[in-house]
Design brief:
By secondary structure, this protein is of the alpha/beta class. It has three domains: about 170 residues, Dimethylsulfoxide Reductase, domain 2, CATH 3.40.228; about 190 residues, Rossmann fold (3-Layer(aba) Sandwich); about 110 residues, Barwin-like endoglucanases (Beta Barrel). About 30% of the residues lie in helices and about 15% in strands. The protein contains 18 helices and 21 strands. A six-stranded mixed β-sheet has the order 17-19-18-21-16-20. Strand 18 and strand 19 form a beta hairpin.
Length: about 525
């Protein structure tokens, strides 16, 4: 997030797109509701009538995969109405004129034809967002998990630049992270093209810095992203995988393909807190500790570094991740002689200025937001106050392209996937909790009453859902949340795994699969 969670309560306009915030980020949603009660206007754009719609001033019920067209349409209206921030654009951006020309065809009527959102709702949303200088955008995987996810994010950035709603308090572009330390994992270098602090592996000065710190020669070649690894394993080009805290048998798109790929490996290691579906396939399972069984830091969605303290002893033979990694590294031939997580964190701060001013001592009572470059720095609640690091930033021309897979006579329904309030991710933790299972332990598919009437399907009836990649048997749930022709299946249920159906077509830049759109058919 460019801005902090506490700032949400001071927003005038909250634009939520591709996020079921109330169910998947309830703490954030509660802040939004507090803002609403103080007078904030909420805009929601989503293929489903998610719970935050109840608080919205305008709801744009768009077709899955049409986000680029919708956001370009909103920008088109803001320009036509003269609601853009001319001073901000002139002083802090470039390529504005070229980008403006690319928006000419995205009239409200044209966008309505693509998205299914009435033109008057597009205009209303544009006037609300464009008319405020205390407006924030919030999105999650409903924006990123598309073959054009990078395009979606670029259009969101364009919208913030157009209105100057960035670089100040109570504004911002705020992607909400899906798990408790996703931000921290990325910050610490768990990405294939960067070292800690997003320092690129192919930059000679960066490479030299880390070679000096770690005392070994390092490669300047980017690694593979997780989705690429599975593809290479399926081709037989990757012979071994070490999987930590992931359950790709359930969470990867086109899960049959993933299972086949893992089956072709010579050697599979899984490190996790439970014997997941993926761990069950492993040659070696390394039992790890959960968050309450170890010390360390988490960096949350707002870039806040927080101290985590061990509360209970781990069960059985479980060991903390740091100990396991250090043991394996030492046995391979590179000793990692760290005495504590604090020592690792201090090293991270010595190699990345954004954390240089943060120490365990400073965050014992309260966390600090990075960047925090010095020991007396208070932390940075919102980014870009003094300008953008690269100087002027560019508007990005983005054209609308349809999803990788569209409906046809053989597969006439659009399936989208996501989470629900009670279960979490692949269910490896929540599905072991009896009260949760008693309340939300059965797989289901949301379908509109109009579609069930047409097909003669009753509420709760078992049906078969098929895509070009697989099929599952699941119970139908008649729901007003989805529109005619759109289906929704939560991803948590291994016995009716949504990702047996989803497409593994990838965004060309981020290599993220298109979890949110695939074509399916239904059989009784």
């Amino acid at each position: 997030m460019t801005n902090s969670i506490i700032e949400i309560e001071g927003l005038e306009v909250i634009f939520i797109i591709g996020s079921n915030t109330k169910e998947t980020h309830p703490v954030i949603a509660n802040r939004m509701i507090k803002a609403f009660r103080k007078g904030a206007k909420i805009i929601v754009a989503d293929p489903r009538k998610v719970p935050m719609v109840r608080f919205s001033e305008v709801f744009m019920n768009l077709r899955p995969g049409t986000d680029v067209a919708l956001i370009n349409g909103i920008a088109h209206v803001i320009l036509k109405e003269g609601l853009h921030d001319k001073k901000f654009i002139e002083e802090r951006t470039e390529f504005f004129d070229e980008w403006t020309k690319s928006l000419e065809k995205f009239t409200p009527d044209a966008v309505s034809q693509i998205t299914g959102v009435p033109a008057e709702n597009i205009i209303k949303a544009a006037k609300l967002y464009g008319g405020s200088r205390k407006a924030g955008i919030f999105y999650t995987m409903g924006i990123t998990q598309h073959t054009h996810g990078t395009d979606n994010v670029n259009t969101i950035a364009n919208l913030a630049l157009l209105t100057g709603n960035i670089g100040r308090k109570h504004t911002g572009i705020n992607p909400l992270r899906g798990q408790n330390n996703v931000q921290g994992a990325c910050d610490a270098g768990c990405l294939p093209n960067v070292y800690p602090g997003y320092q690129r592996v192919d930059m000679p000065t960066v490479k030299e810095k880390f070679e000096k710190a770690w005392g070994v020669p390092l490669s300047a070649k980017e690694g593979l992203k997780a989705t690429e690894m599975i593809g290479e394993a399926h081709k037989g080009k990757i012979k071994a995988l070490y999987i930590m805290g992931e359950n790709p048998i359930l969470t990867d798109a086109n899960a049959n393909h993933t299972k086949e790929a893992l089956g072709k490996l010579d050697f599979l290691v899984v490190q996790d807190i439970f014997l997941t579906e993926t761990a069950a396939l492993a040659d070696v399972v390394l039992p790890a500790t959960c968050f309450a069984e170890k010390d360390g830091t988490f960096i949350n969605t707002e870039r806040k570094v927080q101290l985590v303290r061990k509360a209970v002893e781990p069960p059985g033979e479980a060991k903390n991740d740091m100990w396991i990694i250090a043991e394996i590294s030492g046995r391979i031939g590179y000793p990692m002689n760290y005495s504590s997580p604090e020592e690792v964190f201090d090293e991270l701060g010595s190699l990345w200025s954004a954390l240089s001013g943060i120490s365990y001592g400073r965050i014992r009572a309260n966390g600090l937001h990075w960047p925090c470059p010095t020991k007396d720095h208070p932390g940075t609640e919102f980014l870009y106050k003094a300008g953008f690091p690269r100087g002027k930033v560019s508007f990005t021309c983005v054209d609308y392209l349809p999803p990788a897979e569209v409906t046809d006579k053989d597969y006439p329904f659009i399936l989208t996937t996501g989470r629900n309030l009670f279960q979490y991710h692949s269910g490896s933790m929540t599905r072991r909790v009896a009260p949760i299972e008693a309340h939300a332990g059965k797989a289901y598919m949301e379908i509109s009453a109009e579609d069930t009437n047409m097909l003669g399907i009753k509420d709760g009836e078992a049906i078969t859902v098929k895509s070009r990649r697989g099929e599952i048997r699941i119970n139908a749930r008649i729901s007003s949340r989805v529109s005619k022709g759109v289906l929704f299946i939560p991803m948590h249920y291994g016995e009716a795994a949504a990702n047996m159906l989803t497409s593994d077509a990838l965004d060309p830049y981020a290599k993220t699969p298109e979890f949110k759109v695939c074509a399916v058919k239904i059989e009784k």
